[in-house]
Amino acid sequence: MIQVLFVCLGNICRSPSAEAVFRDMVAAKNLENRIITDSAGTGAWHVGNPPDERAQLIGKTRNIQMSDLRARQVRSSDFEQFQYILAMDNDNYANLSRMKPDHFNGRLCKMLDFGASEETEVPDPYYGDLSDYEYVFDLLKPASEALLKHIIENDLDR
Ligand code: 4NP
Predict the structure, then answer these.
(1) pLDDT for the residue numbered 30
(2) CATH T-level topology, domain 2-151
């Protein structure tokens, strides 16, 4: 079983969107029992909250449901549980790198390391408008497809 964690700052915009996009792709391939997903934030301000309404709204226009998700903060045990930890931006990546124990033998990287985007970060939409949330989903879809393809090819022996 492979466990995948998506991480942003607040865990109410980008990382729950990534989790929701990716888990739908996993489900479409009937891999829910082999690939487990979660998301978390480096910050704690929104712990316990559902995804931002703007993310949920844009998700709905793309048939992506995420109202069941609740924000939590990254914890040190995440490095014991997850084999893939995907940071949305450089700040998230730097914070996770500082937390990462030496014995972590999974993969800590940025979301847009997967796929062929010209962007290297998923930009924070929180102080933006709906078009910024649209752009987040535009970036997440091909990156999620590439991530899933990578996991299927490299981690699932089938
Ligand atoms: P996220 O967006 O990291 O994509 O969930 C943010 C949500 C909340 C805040 C910043 C970014 N905030 O400052 O509260």
Answers:
(1) 98
(2) Rossmann fold (3.40.50)
